[in-house]
Amino acid sequence: xxxxxxxxxxxxxxxxxxxxxxxxxxxxxxxxxxxxxxxxxxxxxxxxxxxxxxxxxxxxxxxxxxxxxxxxxxxxxxxxxxxxxxxxxxxxxxxxxxxxxxxxxxxxxxxxxxxxxxxxxxxxxxxxxxxxxxxxxxxxxxxxxxxxxxxxxxxxxxxxxxxxxxxxxxxxxxxxxxxxxxxxxxxxx
Length: 189
What we know:
The chain is mainly beta.
């Protein structure tokens, strides 16, 4: 339940309640991080957005009472579309992320609240996104700590440059070919 009154039953990404979703204001990212990824994370460039989503990313929405809210947002909420995900921004330098999602000078200034992340992704990363643990938090190029390198060949994340080379040969294009052999020839016949 979205806790909106019956007269304004729809909740927008910015938290306001409206009569119909089409009247929601579009939640925007600030000029410092102008790109809004599909999950709501605000970044400097599109290459910093997560390139793909695994089935486990959608697990946070499985227990939702209303099954139409199936899109996982970075802040731990589930929505009907990625456009409804709230923008999630990194904290300024030398600030810490509190459990309520706010940024403060130090942990002692954080309000004492329950976590805003779901049980399936309980850890709140420095950028405001929710993850299973700190190793799944994305760095500034959009990769988790356990695979911190963004491969130039295909945008996937890897542990090393060598793994990027290996993944390039495994990665398939829309035509089923690898990046090393990108063209499909028609058999002579």
